Amino acid sequence: MDMAQAFALASVALVATNLASIVIAGRRLKPTDAPPPAIDEKPPVSIVVPVRGIENFTAETLDRAFRLIWSDYELLFCVAHAGDPIIPEIVKTAAAYPHIETRILVGDDRISANPKLNNCVKGWQAARHDWVILADSNVLMPPDYIQYLMGGWRTDSGLVCSTPLGSRPDGFWAEVECMFLNTQQARWQYAGEAMGLGFAQGKSMLWYKPMLDANGGIHALNAEIAEDAASTKLVSRLGLKVHLVSSPFEQPLGRRTGQEIWSRQCRWSRLRRVTFPSFFTPEILLGAIPPLLLALIGAMMSDVTLAPAALLVLAAIYLPEVGLALTKGWRLSVWSVPAMIVRDCMMPAIWLRSWVGGNIDWRGNTMTIGTTACELKEAPAGS
Which pathway does UniProt place it in (predicted)? Predict the structure, then answer.
């Protein structure tokens, strides 16, 4: 085999891997309008929501939390500071739904360098029911939110969660974030889970409280800088699995800037790098850039016209991705393919940036992620 053939075959292998992930995820995923799984038992559930400040869709996401179709659930809103402007919004919304048991818990329990985990501690301890959902405040809960999560629980489950499904983008950069979240990250996460490699996602996590309490409780999620990484490893140690809901829950985005997308993706990338380095390292091979470069090198070495080779690779990458979004009812617009291209151009730079330590901002909290997991530490605010 000559070098030109080797490059061409390497390109084909990456394209085939990309297509396989789409096929596997497509078989695992249900469309967004599919009914939730049927379940026989509906035990009471506690929903712990860490909140901070007013976000783009706060009024709607709050209202949705009070309109869930479930016979018995409580809402525990966790706020670090009594002066947070979100508190009056919660009080106003709760007043419209007096039949829903609601508590606002205020306080800052510093058990880790993770501000979200710190905020959840008081909610976990106050939860009255065995089944507890840790839910981010920007999740747009569907009416059957609890049933989707409970319906995802299996005999070998240690945790059921959902990836965020980007929706309602305002502007091109928000379209780019949709393409990061949906047909890239959610797709690979569902493909991995279908092959037995389930990873937790902190947006929505359903726990059986007695099980976690018997293994260190919520404090055990302090073992890693990100609570979802700690959750994944804890569940694996127990010989259990992380499972995903049949269809992910929406996160409405609104307007985004390029800098916000870069910062957020770099933060997540660096967290993956320090918590799961063996899985993170091959991420440099994802997206259209690696197979495209390999195909172009092979074409140049074979004196093949470059344009047809490039178009063939791009079509093989992006048409199946568009098909996945179309069949599942995910965000798709005239800007989606250009957004995919921009996303894929960013991915190698984000991967390279993740290997450099430094400060990140996590919802107003400055943290340091070093070049190895042992260097994780909280940085002084404002540094």
Answer: Lipid metabolism; sphingolipid metabolism; Sphingolipid metabolism
* Percent of the chain predicted with pLDDT > 70: 93
Query: What is the chain's Cα-based Rg?
Result: 22
Distance CA 65, CA 93 (A): 10
Reported confidence tier of residue 365, pLDDT bands at 50, 70, 90: low
**C-alpha distance across the termini of the chain, in Å:** 55
Distance CA 286, CA 271 (A): 18
Distance, in Å, from the CA atom of 102 to the CA atom of 76, rounded to the nearest integer, reads 6
Residue pLDDT, tens place only, 225-250: 889 999 999 999 999 999 999 999 99
> How does DSSP assign 321-343, residue by residue?
HHHHHHHHT----TTHHHHHHHH
Pairing of strands 157-162, 204-208: antiparallel
Give yes or no for a contact between 365 and 115, defined as CB atoms under 8 angstroms apart.
Answer: yes
Evaluate whether 332 touches 178 at the Cβ level (below 8 Å).
no
State residue 354 phi and psi, 5-degree precision.
Answer: -65, -20
pLDDT number for residue 379 = 39
The C-alpha atoms of residue 204 and residue 141 are separated, in whole angstroms, by 10
What domains appear along the chain, each with residue ranges and CATH number? 31-170+188-254 (3.90.550.10)
**Is there a contact between 188 and 21 (Cβ–Cβ < 8 Å)?**
yes
